Amino acid sequence: MHLDRASLLRNLTLEEKAGLVSGADSWWTKAVDRLGIPAIMVSDGPHGLRTQTERRNGAYVGAVPAVCFPAGVALTASFDPSLAYEEGSRLGEEARGQRVHTVLGPAVNLKRSPLCGRNFEYLSEDPYLTGVMATAYVRGVQSQGIGVSLKHFAANNQETRRMSVDEHIDERTLRELYLAAFEMVVKEAHPWTVMCSYNRINGSYSSENAWLLDDVLRKEWGFDGVVMTDWGAMNDPVKARQASLDLEMPGPSPEHDKALVRAVREGKLPEATLDAAVERILAWIDKGLETAPCTYDREAHHAWAREAEAQCAVLLRNERHLLPLASFDRVLFVGPFARTPRYQGGGSSHIRPIKLDGALDFCAADWLPGWGDDGKTADPARLQAVLDAAPRYRAVVVFAGLPDAYESEGYDRTSLALPACQDALIDQVASVQSDTVVLLHVGSPVTMPWKDKVGAILNLYLGGEAVGSATVDLLTGKRIPSGKLPETFPLRLEDTPAYTDYGRGTHDAWYGERVFIGYRWYDDRKAGVLFPFGFGLSYTTFGLDGLELSSRTWSKGSTLEAKVRVTNLGSVAGSEVVQLYVGMAQSPVPRPPKELKGFRKVFLEPGESKVVSFVLDERSFAFWDVERHAWHAAKGTARILVGTSSRDLPLVAKVEVREEPRPVVVTDTTTIGDVIDSGWPYPRFDALLKKLAASYGIDSLDAAGEDAAMYRSWMLATPLHSLAVFAGVPYEQVLEALR
Ligand code: BGC
Asked: Does 159 contact ligand 1 (Cβ within 6 A)?
């Protein structure tokens, strides 16, 4: 059955139309029974379904049990888009099972600071990685005939004052970073809906930001689906519709409905604008009407979650091949997370799992709690028990991590540290037991003052309900770690890109670090980090060689292929992530030293080699040119860097970007240097420059001799109108010389 939208629009009253653009309650849209318009249900994701059906005193309570898959950051650490697709399609199946029409996710805001309370839900500090993984995830969900809501559009990069903070971000930074993943997903995966963020961007709430929603999202990127508000993100319902927002959630919102009717009657809002929103909402409802409900095998989904988490965990350190452990004989587990792991974050994505695997349920290791059950309170007796026991064991495995209350929607962290009792225990245990393994259950980076003392560190991130069984698989080598960090682990909070602005509790956020976030920032400052973006070890080792490019030049409209061979040099099978970065040696604007432009995860048997290839196109080289209002790959040399982490890039090649020079619109304030850069030479202009040089007592711009460098810089920086004062050449004559 399909809705006849044209006929419905003719038959709906103005009041009914105004009613349809806000929800019926927290999770349902409104039905119009007399015309056969059904209500549909949405539910939170992104790493499991939080469907609420039970009500108490009018409010929804609890949630239907659902499989909790690895959280966004963990899934992204797999660097495997096919895994993201599979997680999405399983979530889509569960949605079909629960009669959910659209899943509220994925959440693709970038990690501007490691302190953001929702970083566990967000994917990466890099827009390309975020975009590729989210595109695959959205395709997976939507392959089931279930919609997604790509959120939170845009720049919801902090939880502090998230409902009102004004994010001051220049356009280039928005385009290259904070909008880029949304753009890729919209263009490549066609999400059914987009959810706007609460915050303001450059003075305007996202829900009523016509530049963001109408100019960029719809007109430039071609999005024709529904834009809904985040829950309660509506400010002014009329302005929002003028900006092309469709659906206010949750509802009902009788006052806003009335305001819309009034605005139409008073001629302040064209009825056609309201009609367009209603039509898009009907089209969206329609998309899911023929999706057949299905049953799904929860146990199979749980088993998949276990396999998936084993692909997500990141091995950060493994001295003397401490891992894998041959057995659990004389191995001591420490910490409450060995029994009841931390596996998801707090807030709207917090779901009720079908069950929870604790590592101790899957192996026969000895166990001691080590610290308080809450994960943050020191317990001297428990600590002493561990220190007394540790030397008697072959190895000690510490199940460390952030307690639930440390990472949640609604607020940001204030520190990068683990609870002090955990840091202290790890440090002291490592002093008496060199074979100490630290497992991290965290949704975002933490500091590790004990890093160099312990034998191994395995970051499980927030691995979903099967994290405990997956941990045992990884510790024993039944599964080989193959995750890579989708974010930089900094040495200190003070080193982080947004440090001077972030988390100060102010009403405004100033993005002074501009395009330099994550590794872009640390690379530019040549700063040390705890662990770099893209880093992760394996139980085997890999070698790269044979970087080949299909061409040494690139020009607009063409693509370039890069190929490289990767070989498993060890004696066990494993997967490696080959990463390709591009850095522009010269650029008209300040650019990060390099940016991720391709990655491939490959599984290799011992001794096996495979050739992987990457295709580079305009976006691989371009920056957002604010003056031209377009992507622009400027002429210059690009360095192609290939390796296995952002700081281990042994293969390097160069490509000449043969773009047409950036045309300069000459005005009286254009500098001589800009004229020269624009593609020069104009022979008659050369004669004028000689006059200018003569006024400084030298022959030409390139004269040698004392102070020549200084005169050259002066001349290059001179605006054309100043040739009048310095060389007696009026601006009209300059223009004439440039013709
Ligand atoms: C969150 C969204 C979520 C919505 C519905 C909001 O508070 O920001 O991500 O989808 O609630 O639960």
From this structure: no
Report pLDDT for 680: 59
Q: CA-to-CA distance for 5 and 283, rounded, in angstroms?
A: 7
DSSP 128-166: HHHHHHHHHHHHHHHTTT-EEEEEEETT---STTTTT-E
Note the pLDDT tens digit of each residue in 313-363. 999 999 999 999 999 999 999 999 999 999 999 999 999 999 999 999 999
**Is the pLDDT confidence value at 52 over 70?**
yes
Query: Which residue has a Cα nearest atom 7 of ligand 1?
Result: 231
Residue 104 CA: nearest ligand 1 atom is 10
Find how far residue 399's CA is from the centre of its chain: 27
Q: Is 555 helix (H, G, I), strand (E, B) or coil?
A: coil
Q: Whose CA is nearest to atom 12 of ligand 1?
A: 348
DSSP annotation of 211 reads I
pLDDT at 510: 98
Cα 249 to Cα 211: distance, rounded to the nearest angstrom:
21
Length of the chain (residues): 739
Pocket of ligand 1 contains residue 44 by CB under 6 Å: yes
* pLDDT over threshold 70, residue 663: no
What burial letters (b/e) apply to 308-331, b meaning 16+ CB within 10 Å?
Answer: bbbbbbbbbbbeeebbbbeebeeb
Active site amino acids: 230
Q: Is the CB of 167 under 6 A from ligand 1?
A: no
Instruction: Output the CA torsion 364→368→373→376 (10° steps).
Output: -120
Ligand 1 center to 27 CA (angstroms): 11
Measured in Å, residue 125 CA sits from the centre of ligand 1 at 21
End-to-end CA distance of the chain: 66
pLDDT in tens, 609-635: 999 999 999 999 999 999 899 999 999
- Whether the CB-CB separation of 606 and 572 falls below 8 Å is answered with yes
Protein residue closest via CA to atom 9 of ligand 1: 348
Q: How much is the average pLDDT of 275-284?
A: 98
Give the largest CA-CA distance in the chain. 90
Tokens of 83: 């895994």
Question: Which strands make up the sheet holding 651-657, listed edge to edge?
Answer: 553-554, 651-657, 636-643, 574-584, 595-604
Written as one letter, the residue type at 642 is V
Distance CA 79, CA 600 (A): 8
- 189 CA to centre of ligand 1 in angstroms: 22
Predicted confidence at residue 684, as pLDDT, reads 82
Q: Is 104 in the pocket of ligand 1 (CB under 6 A)?
A: yes
Determine how β-strand 59-61 pairs with β-strand 54-56. Answer: antiparallel
Atom 6, ligand 1: which residue's CA is nearest?
231
Q: Provide the CA 357 distance to its chain's centre, in angstroms.
A: 28
Q: What atom in ligand 1 is closest to the CA of residue 198?
A: 8
Ligand 1 midpoint to CA 26 (Å): 10
46: amino acid identity, one letter: P
Reference 65, options 352, 472, 460, 431; nearest CA is 352
| pLDDT over threshold 90, residue 683 | no
**pLDDT at position 662, please?**
60
Q: pLDDT digit string (tens) for 394-452?
A: 999 999 999 999 999 999 999 999 999 999 999 999 999 999 999 999 999 999 999 99
pLDDT tens-digit readout, 445-479? 999 999 999 999 999 999 999 999 999 999 999 99
For range 154-158, the mean pLDDT:
98
348 lines ligand 1 (CB under 6 A): yes
Rounded Cα distance between 246 and 738, Å, is 51
Distance CA(436)–CA(450), nearest Å, equals: 11
- Does ligand 1 have an atom closer than 6 angstroms to the CB of 600? no
The verdict on the CB of residue 136 being under 6 Å from ligand 1 is no
Instruction: Give 267's pLDDT tier (boundaries 50, 70, 90).
Output: very high
The residues, ordered by sequence, that sit 6+ positions from 702 with a Cβ below 8 Å of its Cβ are 712
